[in-house]
Design a protein that fits this description.
Elements: H1 2-19, H2 25-47, H3 55-79, H4 85-92, H5 95-107, H6 114-130, E1 134-137, H7 142-166, H8 173-194, H9 205-233, H10 235-238, H11 245-256, H12 264-279, H13 282-292
Helix pairs in contact: 1-4, 1-9, 1-11, 2-3, 2-8, 2-9, 3-7, 3-8, 4-11, 5-7, 5-12, 6-12, 8-9
Length: 293
């Protein structure tokens, strides 16, 4: 499940890029949540799952939808109008670090430990390298970079929020995902209708297939897998699924979109992943296992 979710989300950056050929960023976010909700509705019909009936449950699902879907989806799509899909995916790999920071500050389910601080510092150094901080932002729009950082911060807040508030509802996974992305689509709809043209150009088969796949797989099936991972291993480890996504996204971006990759982007990305692994204790656990062996 872990690897499949990572593969799907890695390809999502390519699908966003293709969907932007005929949709605005808000349009991309709306249609991906709408198609994702439709996929989960089909799953609910297959499993004969029932929707929650309490206001409290829907309130929590709506908040999860805003944190994990509607706002970050718009921000990522906007950023990809200014930066490459590869860079967006590499920045997305910072999500485990923002998750750890949020857990420490807001949810306080973990004490501040030396490896956590070390991992956060290493990860932030990696971000600076990814951005080529020694040359400013280079050709990257600072507002686009800020949008990416806000988006991953929302993911960092949303993941432990879901663990704390949605998981205890004990809803079937397909219902939880439907509630999250379905409410996100409803939240986005008025903004989509009022923000300008519904389509910026005539879509072709490739771009249409991209938004349908992005929604059904990237916002439906992948979140279904993610919720199941979250239930088993917790928010900090579940968020590390973003370790896989930049590798897939970079390969697809370079091969299929002809994107230019600067040497410092993959180098910084590896440092980001290393920092995330250190902050979550993955490296520490590995050394302990070797010591025992």
């Amino acid at each position: 499940m872990y690897s499949v979710a990572g593969l799907i989300w890695g390809a999502s950056f390519l699908f966003i890029e293709l969907a932007l050929s005929f949709l605005t960023p808000i349009g991309v976010a709306f249609w991906r949540t709408a198609f994702g909700a439709l996929a989960m509705l089909v799953a609910m019909m297959i499993f004969r799952s029932k929707l929650p009936t309490t206001f409290d449950a829907w309130k929590k699902l709506t908040i999860a939808g805003i944190l994990m879907s509607s706002v970050p989806f718009v921000l990522f799509a906007y950023a990809q109008t200014q930066v490459t899909s590869a860079l967006a995916a590499i920045i997305n790999a910072v999500t485990p670090i923002t998750t750890v920071i949020v857990i420490l500050i807001a949810f306080r389910t973990e004490k501040l430990k030396a490896h956590v601080i070390t991992g956060i510092v290493v990860g932030l150094v990696g971000v600076l390298i990814v951005l080529g901080a020694w040359q400013g932002f280079g050709s990257n729009n600072p507002i686009a970079i800020l949008a990416l950082l806000v988006a991953i911060t929302l993911y960092g807040i949303g993941t432990p929020y879901v663990r704390k508030n949605i998981t205890p509802l004990k809803l079937p996974t397909e219902v939880s995902v439907f509630g999250q992305i379905g409410t996100a689509a409803i939240t986005l709809l008025p903004f989509y209708l009022l923000s300008g043209p519904l389509f910026t150009s005539t879509p072709n088969f490739e771009s249409l297939a991209s938004i349908v796949t992005l929604g059904a797989l990237g916002s439906g099936v992948a979140y279904l897998l993610y919720y199941k991972i979250l239930e088993v291993v917790g928010s900090a480890i579940a968020s590390s699924v973003t370790y896989i996504t930049p590798v897939i996204a970079v390969i697809l971006g370079v091969l299929l979109l002809g994107e230019e990759l600067h040497w410092y982007e993959p180098v910084g990305g590896l440092i980001v992943i290393l920092g995330a692994a250190i902050s979550q204790g993955s490296i520490l656990s590995l050394f302990r296992k070797k010591a025992i062996a």
